[in-house]
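Ticket #333: bound-state structure for N-hydroxy-L-asparagine.
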Amino acid sequence: MIGNSRRYALKASLSAGAIVLLDGLGCQSAEEVDLASVASSPLSRPVFIATWPFGLAACEKSQRTLTQGGSLLDAVEYGINLTELDPKVSSVGVGGLPNADGVVQLDASIMDGQRQRAGSVAALEGFANPISVARRVMESTRHVMLVGQDAAAFAQASGFESQELLTEESRQAWEKWRSNQAGKSIGEKTHDTIALLGVNRDGQVAGGCSTSGLAFKLPGRVGDSPLIGSGMYVDGEVGAAGATGVGENVLRYCGSFLIVEYMRQGMSPTEACISAIRRIATGDRKSPAELSVNFIAINKRGQIGAAGTDREFRCAVVEQQRSLLITPHMVTS
Ligand code: SD4
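RESOLUTION: The complex was predicted; output attached.
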């Protein structure tokens, strides 16, 4: 099951160009548009793009943060915080589905294209906003990545408050999985990371991503999201990319870094996303439809792009006053 994104996507699956009401997304309305109609030239900066329909409220929060005088990094962080704190999103932060032991372990990363700074946390337990902890790692240590119990100790020492992340709903989902799972593999379809990328008026670029990872994963498993260059990457001279899907299929190819490098070589953001998916499929000798890899990208001019292998994949874009829900380019064969 794909939980939130599929539910939200169904609510939003009206014809292209329609103004759709998006109950449960925390935002008023969005225009559903074809990728082609918005991806051929740069949008009006500042522009934010995020994975999945729940990314719309996050992008709107990012935009508001800039309008209210916040920095681009604030915008990325506070936008993602909104999703992390939404217990209805079962793949990020509070309410995220737990690992096989019933423990919620979160991964997140943030990156600033101004000076190629980055911070990340992996397998973090007990803190609702891993993106904020990742930012703290970036800004107040000389390191990039902290993991597990030591990341939690760092968060505690940095003043973040710990809390229970398992909700009644996510606990019940875990109980159900546990009672049904004998002989079955990990539920690969229970994933929906938020990756959020932004370019401000001056063409500065930043990005972040946050996830509870694959539901019912092995304890200690780390996905692509906190690995700089895999789940997310920013290059201040080029643009940024982010991923959602099965992390194992993204991190073996440094998927987001690959997309940024393709853009550096002159590809549009969408072409770069498609090329990365094809590269993964070729390397794995599999059909793209078997991979569950989905990407968003933006270049520093404000041109956006997206491509994926999951039919339900959608992304959200906010530019100035417009909120858009976009069906990315599908790569299935
Ligand atoms: C992971 N890529 O941990 C994440 C999960 C995900 O959309 O994207 N979900 O593998």
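RESOLUTION NOTES: The chain has one domain: 4-330.
TICKET STATUS: resolved
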